[in-house]
Amino acid sequence: MVYLLHFDQPYKHAKHYLGWASDLDARVAEHGHAHGARLISVIAEHGITWRLARTRPGTRHRERQLKRQGGKSRLCPLCGITPCPATVRGRSTP
Ligand SMILES: [Zn+2]
After folding, report:
1. pLDDT for 34
2. 20 alpha carbon to ligand 1 midpoint, in Å?
3. If you measure from the C-alpha of residue 53 to the centroid of ligand 1, how many angstroms do you get, rounded to a whole number?
4. What would the pLDDT profile of 30-88 be if each residue is shown by its tens digit?
5. Cα 15 to middle of ligand 1, angstroms
6. Are 1 and 20 in contact (CB under 8 A)?
7. 30 three-class SS
8. How far does the centroid of ligand 1 lie from the alpha carbon of residue 43, in Å?
């Protein structure tokens, strides 16, 4: 599974974390206990909460592909609900 975490407040340039896990529930539980990705424990130290924005079936290869593409907010339904100007530009709402 490829998953996207949405931070409730941005940390430096980061508003999202894109990761991959074969067992998502276990992986998110790890993040919740701050033993997951380094970035997640750093934002937790800053009191920033995060939400699981999206999951999709995919491989590690797909995760790397998405990371290279950038523009993670375009993938994020939470950002789509309350878009900031940068994400509104060039976006047509159905
Ligand atoms: Zn988002």
Report:
1. 45
2. 17
3. 7
4. 666 545 577 888 888 899 999 999 998 999 999 999 889 887 888 888 886 554 555 55
5. 7
6. yes
7. helix
8. 15
**Closest Cα to residue 29, out of 40, 18, 39?**
40
How far does residue 7's CA lie from ligand 1's centre (Å)? 7
Determine phi and psi for 18, rounding to 5 degrees.
Answer: -105, 125
Q: Distance from the CA of 35 to the center of ligand 1, in angstroms?
A: 22
Query: Residues 65, 26: contact at Cβ < 8 Å?
Result: no
- Cβ partners under 8 Å of residue 57, min gap 6: 1, 2
82 by DSSP, 3-state: which?
A: coil
